[in-house]
Amino acid sequence: MDRFAVIGLGRFGMGLAVNLAQKGAEVIAIDANRELVEQARDQVTLAVCLDATDPDALRTQGLDKVDVAIVGIGQDFEANALATATLKTIGVPRVFSRAGSQIQGQILSRIGADGFIFPEAESADNWANRLTLPHLMHKIELGDSHSLVEVKAPPPFVRKNLLELNLRKKFHVNLVAIKRQVTVSSGAGSQGTRQQIITVPAPDAPIQPDDILILVGSDENIARLPTE
């Protein structure tokens, strides 16, 4: 699983850091407020009080070695933008930054952010799922820690059929349907594509590279599905 850094431990940042840690991820939590850092200390891998715009301080704490950083600073957009640029400068591969508006999102994209977050519209739990399960496209919670999810077919599943995959026995999840792009004739010799929903997949039919699998299972078992 990826290593994460969460910068800014307000309500969204704290919730995200704790959610990621509970899902088994290694999480470094950063804030300039020592009280917030102390609140996070026992719930994440490492919690540090420092200036997230200082590249040397970030390197000292291993931020240049994380796979993903999330900048959740909400009250100071300048600090948010500077932290975003600094994280990209020290080599963090993926940086997602908090934006209060579409204009702020555009600014963050121009200085290197790989994506932006609107905490008012998106929950920390949803982002934790998105970050720890990058292959997950949609999720509907069914209760009792079970969900219905849509995932792009993992590479190890491609070209294998359902009998070979044996999803129920090997992964403890159930396949509900498959969404597949199929080629159709659109008249005058031209072709297009449309989405086909296969509700009763043939057990000996192979999974295609762009298939989207609709699965039901516990959140724990869904998280164990291969991603590479």
Descriptors:
9 helices; six-stranded parallel sheet; Rossmann fold; 32% strand; globular; single chain; 228 residues; five-stranded antiparallel sheet; Alpha-Beta Plaits; alpha/beta
**How do the helices and strands follow one another from N- to C-terminus?**
EHEHEHEHEHEHEEHHEEEH
Radius of gyration: 21 Å
Mean pLDDT: 86
The strands making up the biggest β-sheet line up spatially as 3-2-1-4-5-6
What is the assigned CATH homologous superfamily of the largest domain? NAD(P)-binding Rossmann-like Domain
Category by helix and strand content: alpha/beta
Give the number of helices. Answer: 9
Beta content comes to: 25-35%
How many β strands by DSSP? 11
Q: Which CATH class of the largest domain applies here? A: Alpha Beta
Q: List low-pLDDT spans.
A: none
Helix percent reads 25-40%
**Spatial gap, N to C terminus:** 11 Å
**Biggest pleated sheet:** 6 strands, parallel
CATH architecture of the largest domain: 3-Layer(aba) Sandwich
The name CATH uses for the topology of the largest domain is Rossmann fold
What count of structural domains?
2
> Quick one: overall form?
globular
